[in-house]
C-alpha cells in the first residue's frame, strides 16, 4: 500500500518532500521518527491510504510498546477511527479487526505486556467507536492474569472515574463510554478481585463508583480526591 499520489502535508511542520515521497512508496521501511510524525498528524487529506501505508509497521511498533504518545494510546486509536477502517474493503477491514482483537486477547493473557491493558483498551475503543465488545472479551478471560490487569486498570482509572470523567480523551460520547465502563466495573470487578486478595481500599473505590452525589463523597471510604 502507498499514500495517495496527491497526498500533501506541510514541509515546515510535518516533514520534507523526501519524507512524503517515502509514504508514496510501498514496502519501504520508515524510520521511527517518520512513523511517529505520520500517525500523529491529523490533517491528512487521504487518511485511509496513509494508515494502510504505515499499518504493518505501526502494528509491530504498537504491540512491542515502541509507540510513545503524548497523552495515551487512545491517540493512536483515533488515527484508526479517522481513517474509517471499518468502511474499507471487507478483507482489509477484517484484517484490522482481527489484529485489534488478537492484540487485546494476547494482552489479557500476558503477565507483563509491552503496553498495559488499560491503554490497549482505550486504543481499541477509540479505533472501533465501541467499548462493549472489548469488555465482553475481558469478561470471558476469567483467569488470574486478566484479573491482575483489571486491578491495575482500576488503580489507574479510579481518580477520573470517581470524578465522573472518562480516563482518556475520546472522539465519541464520553459520558456514554464512562457510564458503560463504570457499570461494568461495579458489576463484574468486585467478585473477580476478591478472589485474589485485592486490597480492601481498591474494592471500596469500586463500590464508590456505584454511588452518586453525597452518598459517594460522604462515604467513610471516600479517598479525599479534589477536582
Which class of secondary structure composition applies to the elements? Answer: mainly alpha
- Can you summarize the main beta sheet? none
Helix content: 55-70%
Order of helices and strands: HHHHHHHHHHH
Which parts are unreliable, with pLDDT below 50 for 5 consecutive residues or more? none
List the helices and strands and how they pair.
Layout: H1 17-23, H2 32-40, H3 47-63, H4 74-82, H5 90-109, H6 117-128, H7 132-140, H8 144-162, H9 174-194, H10 200-209, H11 214-217
Helix pairs in contact: 4-6, 5-6, 8-9, 8-10, 9-10
How is this structure best described in words?
The protein is an all-alpha fold. It has helices at 17-23, 32-40, 47-63, 74-82, 90-109, 117-128, 132-140, 144-162, 174-194, 200-209, 214-217. The longest helix is centred in the last third of the chain and has 21 residues, at 174-194.
